[in-house]
């Protein structure tokens, strides 16, 4: 092990990796931050709405919706992480301490890992319930809690690992270009692990698709079968497949770039696209929430009920303030008679 550089500045590691550290706001930085802040705020609001809807509607108190709620929580965390990044990027990066930089990176890694692990858990739960011919899995609530706890434990572990051991502070020749304080091996292992998880999910959903298609064909031959089961099953499968597809589309470009950087591809200009691919990845947290409202009729009704309640409460508060203002203005009117003494005239 070489000399460790725990007392160096962020600029030292950026110069070592060849990544530019700007001292002023460039037009590209302003555009990325403006888009990033907009996406982050939308992600926070939409995923808070999803979590509130799942918590307030008893029909959603099922394992699959607990997992979808956990996915919304991971996306909410991703919105917070990206918002933190937007406030500590550009020229502000140079003012970060090593701990601050690892915190910024750890938040992003943890939220992404939680999303990937939750999507895999959703795929496994859907496979289990569909194969058991159930609309909703009968997985015990305690086991669901353990599953969600395991997801976040793994996410926190991978998010904290670079700050404690898997960095390049003691081996500068192993530093990556996209994340100058992280080891290239960490980026390669993380990207390969995510791609492996994607392949597993694709295999699970492919098996679900063919199974459901065969079962629907058989059910169509029997009049006694209730069509609601077929519609609900297909709707849930389509919803999670759309979520998975959106995740793959949004995250695959970034993962490929991470893998190329982890493999030390000298001819690959990964720094030219990293910010845009990260913004694309963050937009997936917004897409997930939109998918819920578009695919699930009960979720749409719950959204409308919650939004209507907010509007009615605001209208009620405004009406109350208006009545109070009218009452105050009508109850006190001063008159000045000829003798100069003020008299109180009540009109109520």
From TrEMBL:
Domain G-protein coupled receptors family 1 profile, first and last residues per copy: 46-292
InterPro entries xrefs: GPCR_Rhodpsn (IPR000276), GPCR_Rhodpsn_7TM (IPR017452), LPA_rcpt (IPR004065), LPA_rcpt_EDG4 (IPR004066)
Domain of life from the UniProt record: Eukaryota
One matching Pfam family: 7tm_1
Subcellular compartments: Cell membrane
Keyword Glycoprotein: yes
Protein name as catalogued: Lysophosphatidic acid receptor 2
Origin organism lineage: Eukaryota, Metazoa, Chordata, Craniata, Vertebrata
């Amino acid at each position: 092990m070489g000399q460790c550089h725990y007392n160096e500045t962020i600029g030292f590691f950026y110069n070592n990796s060849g990544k530019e550290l700007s001292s002023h706001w460039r037009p590209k930085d302003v555009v990325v931050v403006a888009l990033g802040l907009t996406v982050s705020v939308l992600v926070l609001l939409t995923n808070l709405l999803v979590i509130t809807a799942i918590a307030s509607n008893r029909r959603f108190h099922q394992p699959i919706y607990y997992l979808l709620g956990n996915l919304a929580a991971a996306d909410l965390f991703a919105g917070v992480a990206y918002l933190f990044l937007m406030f500590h990027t550009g020229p502000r990066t140079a003012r970060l301490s090593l701990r601050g930089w690892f915190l910024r990176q750890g938040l992003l890694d943890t939220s992404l890992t939680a999303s990937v692990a939750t999507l895999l858990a959703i795929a496994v739960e859907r496979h289990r319930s569909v194969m058991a011919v159930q609309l909703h899995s009968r997985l015990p609530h305690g086991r669901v809690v353990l599953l969600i706890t395991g997801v976040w434990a793994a996410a926190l572990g991978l998010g904290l690992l670079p700050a404690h051991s898997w960095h390049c502070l003691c081996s500068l020749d192993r530093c990556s270009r996209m994340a100058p304080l992280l080891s290239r091996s960490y980026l390669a292992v993380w990207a390969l692990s995510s791609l492996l998880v994607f392949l597993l999910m694709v295999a699970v959903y492919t098996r679900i698709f063919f199974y459901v298609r065969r079962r629907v064909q058989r059910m169509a031959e029997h009049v006694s079968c209730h069509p609601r089961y077929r519609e609900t099953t297909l709707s849930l499968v389509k919803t999670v497949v759309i979520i998975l597809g959106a995740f793959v589309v949004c995250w695959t470009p970034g993962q490929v770039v991470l893998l190329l950087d982890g493999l030390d591809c000298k001819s690959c200009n990964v720094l030219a696209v990293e910010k845009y691919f990260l913004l694309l990845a963050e937009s997936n947290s917004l897409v997930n929430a939109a998918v819920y409202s578009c695919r699930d009729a009960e979720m749409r009704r719950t959204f409308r009920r919650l939004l209507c309640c907010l509007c009615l409460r605001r209208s009620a508060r405004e009406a109350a303030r208006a009545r109070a203002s009218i009452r105050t203005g009508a109850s006190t009117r001063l008159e000045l008679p000829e003798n100069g003494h003020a008299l109180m005239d009540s009109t109520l």
